[in-house]
Amino acid sequence: MKTYRTHLLLCGGTACHASGSEAVRDALKEELAKRKLDGEIRVVETGCNGFCAQGPVMVVQPDNIFYQKLKVEDIPELVEEHFLKGRPVERLFYREPASEETIPSLDDIPFFSRQLLRVLRNRGTLDPELIDEYIARDGYMGASKALLEMTPEEIIGEMKKSGLRGRGGAGFPTGMKWEFAGRSEGDIKYVLCNADEGDPGAFMDRS
Q1: Where are the alpha helices (DSSP H) in the chain?
Q2: Residue 186, pLDDT score
Q3: Do residues 65 and 105 lie in contact, with contact meaning Cβ atoms separated by under 8 Å?
């Protein structure tokens, strides 16, 4: 796998896409190629970063610098100043509304610094079209263990012990649902899954 000195994590979520992230992505790739930096700097179009109101947004790694409200016309300056001269572009930083202070690091922005991410801990860092990136962050580890190492009874017991509930309004315990299905007559069982509830906006407790 090729190693890059810098990764540009450009949000490709719905809100950023509507704000022009696709055009920004194309401009970034074109400008980096023109400056012969495309072999050192990788543009990664990620899932939703979370700060939709500031889009299009981009995080520069490994420095964790957060750029917001990017436009195509910003790209030549950004590449020249930040990636060639090593001078981050302050005018594109997040600006705290009350104090007008510019904040370069994503971790120092109040919107992010007060969050404790669990379900969404990898948000805005992975290319959702590359399954290897998800697996590298322990994706499918639980499914692998359940399929290869556990009995159905152990899986149901683990689910009941976890306290996981349905994401709808009733919040019915998932382990009990599975236990009822396991006890029902018949050799073939079906699980009906509402895939829309994979959307973070549908989570009862969000992240």
Answers
A1: 14-18, 21-34, 75-78, 110-113, 131-136, 141-149, 152-162, 174-183
A2: 85
A3: yes
Question: 102-134: per-residue pLDDT in tens?
Answer: 999 999 999 888 888 777 777 767 777 888 888
Q: Are 88 and 81 in contact (CB under 8 A)?
A: yes
- Contact (Cβ atoms closer than 8 angstroms) between residue 142 and residue 136: no
Residues 45-77 as b/e (b if ≥16 CB within 10 A, e otherwise) read: bbbbbbbeebbbbbbbeeeebbbbebebebbee
Domains, the chain, ordered by start = 6-136 (3.40.30.10), 141-202 (no CATH)
Whole-number pLDDT of residue 139: 86
Tell me the average pLDDT of the chain.
Answer: 88
What's the sign of the alpha-carbon dihedral 126, 130, 133, 136? Answer: positive
Q: Which residues have a Cβ under 8 Å from the Cβ of 178 and sit 6 or more positions away?
A: 155, 156, 159
| Antiparallel, parallel or unpaired: β 41-46 and 6-11 | parallel
Whole-prediction pTM: 0.72
Residue 46, SS3 per DSSP: strand
Say whether pLDDT at 26 is over 60.
yes
Residue 55 and residue 71 in contact, taking contact as beta carbons nearer than 8 Å? no
Q: At what angle do helices 152-162 and 174-183 cross, to 10 degrees?
A: 150
